[in-house]
Design brief:
Layout lengths: L1 H7 L1 H32 L9 H18 L3 H14 L15 H45 L4 H7 L3 H37 L3 H45 L5 H29 L3 H6 L10 H6 L5 E6 L7 H22 L4 E7 L3 E9 L14 H11 L3 E7 L2 E9 L5
Parallel strand pairs: 1-2
Antiparallel strand pairs: 2-3, 3-5, 4-5
Helix pairs in contact: 1-2, 2-3, 2-4, 2-5, 2-7, 3-5, 4-5, 5-6, 5-7, 8-9, 8-12, 12-13
């Protein structure tokens, strides 16, 4: 039963279709080669029934097919045909055109092998079934009609034994054709991964694409975490403070509601800008800069942060490269969010110093001793700060010392490049 499935099962039939497709693709090359063989042979007739001429044209057609298969798109077309018909796992095929010389050579070798086997199986599929039908049908037909069939006698000879063995021979011809087709299909299936699979260069390019996609997702996650996380922390603190003095200090409540409104409006704008990148093509992710505020908007951030901040700048933050300026803004923002969650409205001291080759950010605030405000999904802020600093070639450190929470980040100004 397993042998029958191997020879005549669905997979065998799909592979036979794939081989027939190869035979069809071979036909233009074979016709061109037949013309060349006829001309070079000096014969008056270009197409003859001579097997020598036909196989000579077949042999000449294969190098022509190999030369035409040395194109980038050959691999894509071959993969499109082989993936649904050969029964090979889809992940073992390469994606896209063959862009390197080794990949094109492999695709050309596959194309030639496919056409070579496909031409043989196609020719056998055209010639052998009629022969098998003659061997199977004519003996019983001759007994019923009492007539002699010269074609059958030429094939089998005369006498009782050829007449009895003819049907067996016809079935054997069909089984042999099925076996040859199954064998050729299995050979193509074995050769598909090494010839149509990804080359080392393809694997490297795929790994680089995955790494780039992962970097983009991490960058977007950091932007969302820092922007939305800071806004939620500030809004929570402002709303909590306003609720406590709702009846006694209406002016403070009015200012808190104004700060909440402005914080949420600014955050929604930043959120739309980040989500806009997610709706773009993947190719744009790797080349387009992430939107976001920079150090020129730091005063507004400090004014609306929900915590009193003593800020001192040394040097000119406006002259910091744009990429470093954006990352520095996010680092300060996350530092303020961390202070809000851990110490409420305790005052924060912030120093930003622009050195000749790096930007230094220092922040400290007193430890309150109370449990921090826990936000679902939180706990990644300091890690995000460290990632931002590392991507620019800098360092970030944070920890408690002498009753203060101290945070320091150093960002090379050349990190923008």
């Amino acid at each position: 039963m397993r042998l029958v499935s191997t020879l005549f099962g669905p997979q065998a039939r799909r592979r036979w279709v794939h081989l027939i497709l190869g035979g069809a693709l071979l036909m233009p090359y074979w016709l061109l080669s037949s013309v060349l063989v006829g001309v070079l042979g000096g014969g008056g007739r270009l197409f003859t029934g001579s097997l020598a001429v036909q196989f000579g044209a077949y042999a000449l057609a294969l190098p022509i097919a190999a030369a035409s298969g040395y194109t980038p798109l050959t691999r894509s077309l071959c993969v499109s045909a082989a993936r649904p018909l050969l029964g090979v796992p889809a992940e073992r095929f390469a994606e896209g055109p063959a862009r390197t010389r080794p990949a094109r050579l492999r695709a050309s070798a596959w194309f030639t092998l496919h056409l070579a086997l496909g031409g043989l199986i196609s020719g056998a599929s055209l010639a052998l079934p009629p022969l098998a039908a003659v061997l199977i049908v004519l003996p019983p037909l001759s007994r019923l009609t009492g007539e002699r069939y010269e074609t059958y006698e030429v094939l089998t000879g005369t006498g009782p034994w050829p007449a009895l063995l003819g049907p067996v021979a016809g079935l054997a011809v069909l089984v042999g054709l099925a076996a040859a087709s199954a064998g050729a299909g299995a050979l193509l299936a074995r050769q598909a991964p090494p010839l149509l699979g990804p080359t080392p260069a393809d694997r490297l390019a795929a790994a680089e694409r995955r790494a780039a996609d992962l970097a983009v997702r991490n960058r977007l996650a950091r932007e969302l975490h820092d922007s939305v996380g800071h806004a939620l922390s500030a809004v929570t603190l402002q709303a909590s403070a306003a609720r406590r003095v709702l009846d006694s200090d209406p002016e403070f409540v009015r200012e808190a509601l104004t700060a909440i409104e402005e914080t949420t409006r600014r955050t929604v704008g930043e959120l739309d800008a980040v989500l806009g990148l997610l709706r773009q093509d993947e190719d744009a992710h790797g080349t387009e800069e992430l939107p976001g505020p920079a150090l020129d908007l730091l005063d507004d951030l400090l004014a609306r942060s929900g915590v009193p901040v003593a800020y001192e700048a040394v040097g000119d933050p406006a002259g910091v490269p744009a990429a470093v300026s954006r990352e520095a803004y996010r680092i300060v923002q996350e530092g303020l969010s961390n202070a809000l969650r851990h110490n409420g409205s305790s005052p924060v001291s912030l120093w930003i110093t622009v050195h000749s080759e790096e930007l230094e950010i220092r922040m400290e605030n007193p430890l309150s001793g109370r449990a921090p405000v826990v936000r679902p999904g939180g706990g990644r802020g300091l890690r995000g700060i460290a990632e931002r600093a590392t991507l620019l070639g800098g360092v970030a450190e944070a920890g408690a010392k002498d009753g203060l929470w101290r945070f320091t980040a150093r960002l090379p100004l050349g990190g923008a490049r």
